[in-house]
Amino acid sequence: MACSARILVTAWCFFVGISVSVPGWQELVYGLPPPCESYIYCTGDLLKQVQLARLFSDDKHFVDMPLRESPELVLKKFQQLVNVTPGGILSKEQLQQFVSSSFSDPGQEFEQWEPQDWMSSPQILAKISDQELQAWASDLNAKWKSLGRKIKDDVRTHPMFYSQIYVPHPLMVPGGRFIEYYYWTTSPKHLVSLVQLLLLCCRDSYWVIEGLLLSEMAATAKGMIQNFLYLVERYGHIPNGGRVYYLRRSQPPFLTLMMDAYLAHANDTDFLRENIHLLEVEYEFWQRNRSVSITVGDRNHTLNYYNVQIGEPRPESYSKDWELASDLNEDARQELWAELKSAAESGWDFSSRWFLSWPSSLPATLKDTKARAVVPVDLNAFLCKTEHLLASFYRILGNTTKAAQFQAALQRRLEAVQAVFWNEAAGVWLDFNLLKKQPNPAFFPSNLAPLWTDCFSDQAAAERAVRYLEGSTVLSYKNGLPTSLSRTGEQWDLPNAWPPLQHMVIAGLAKSSSSRAKEIAFDLARNWVRTNFALYKKYQAMFEKYNVDGDGKPGTGGEYQVQEGFGWTNGVVLQLLDLYGDRLTSGSPSTLFRAWIIAACTIFLLDLKW
């Protein structure tokens, strides 16, 4: 955004007058609880010594390892070793030997599972005109068979031996590093890649479920939704992922949106009636634990943000978190670790979106993360859609009281989104910073999330969003819409492009009444499909993220290598092929131009002949 636009954005804040009320915001964070109560997988000396010794290239490896003996016995043996070791710090060799004798390799909680409702020729294939794209879609459809997993019953009967959280139904895993189900999104190489496949978050799972439904695998999709409902019933919310060390943080709330997607294909009203109370439980988790009051002018608005009040390093990234906070005092360290978990709860781990220092002449780093200071546009857009759907669901079920309750909540949300996020100077919705009491003028695809969730009242919003996109440089990237315009080395920044963000923007623009918005939506879909297809031909793989620079390649940056798989990437591509399959082609623009020249020349020669 130009400097003058930044000034206008800032001036808007002072003009409307904004105050913020966040309970406990200024309290000291020292003494925050750990990620979970396990003295093996979440906190304690054993975890600290093993992770700081860096026995494995990825900290996640250790905390995914099942125990060979009871936790009490393992801790007792470890303490005995500590007691006889001078200084109490075991050598790397001692730790390697102890871990080898006390733990098994990760991934043994799972068994391969092939979905019974898979079919080789779902109807979506007939909607794709281009033969190469049709064959590719058939390959993606076939990948569902390799991504299926089922948690062994031993995890249910002996949960203390595992960090894995049991769920009763089979599931689709993301791919790559992640070997569990995750709410929002999916190698050591080969064996560890397979092992690290298996935990799918709800956000990730939303796009996987949409892909499954397009592949006519409604039973598998329903099973995944049942797993998330099981977690809500057990914990009161959906953890970030299916490991105990994720228990005290969630991710963007998509469960109600999943139910809506399933009902559109299955019309299973009985399933909705049996479980709508759990959809409401998840919604209330966000209202009760992740809300903030913002006053604009003389109006008070309640919105939601990511706020994980949990201390200590993230177990799955322990050594990185410890090193990052090494020069801080205890209070500052605990605060930073809580901020990192809050950013992880957003699914955008990590990004300049959460850095406090914008705009600044000094480059920001991960240590500048202040995710709890940001009220995000997209989170509130998702909850806006949730309120709309809950009102609609209760009307379907004949509960007019509940329907009116959520309709009123939706109206309050629409007013809050307009008052707090809509920025007239920028012509788009912008994240709001609680500490600076002003919007973040930076570009993120999430700025357009209200278009996707219909969380706006002004029908001119789509046209304004078009002008916002055309006024930036983001449409000049032909491999996808960049996640931001900041190069920080973090994976949720330039040069990476992420599948769900592409879909949200494309789908939001596509359903508007603006012809120009529809054109941009198609252009973005064409670019994304061609990027994915080109890399699939090169690597025979789908990736969790892609690089928008140059000729296109897998994404970069962040805490781990780019992951193959990849459930949500497959789901987004299938959705775009379903939307535009009759128009999309597999060729690059240059290839299509050459084909056009050849066709024109042929017609010209035929005219000469006649």
UniProtKB/TrEMBL annotation:
Full protein name: Trehalase
Reactions performed catalytically: alpha,alpha-trehalose + H2O = alpha-D-glucose + beta-D-glucose
Enzyme Commission (EC) number: 3.2.1.28
InterPro entries with a match to the protein in the record: 6-hairpin_glycosidase_sf (IPR008928), 6hp_glycosidase-like_sf (IPR012341), Glyco_hydro_37 (IPR001661), Glyco_hydro_37_CS (IPR018232)
Gene Ontology molecular-function annotations: alpha,alpha-trehalase activity
Organism this protein belongs to: Mauremys mutica (yellowpond turtle)
Keyword annotations of the record: Glycosidase, Hydrolase, Signal
Keyword Transferase in annotation: no
GO biological process entries: trehalose catabolic process
Signal peptide stretch: 1-21
Protein family: Belongs to the glycosyl hydrolase 37 family.
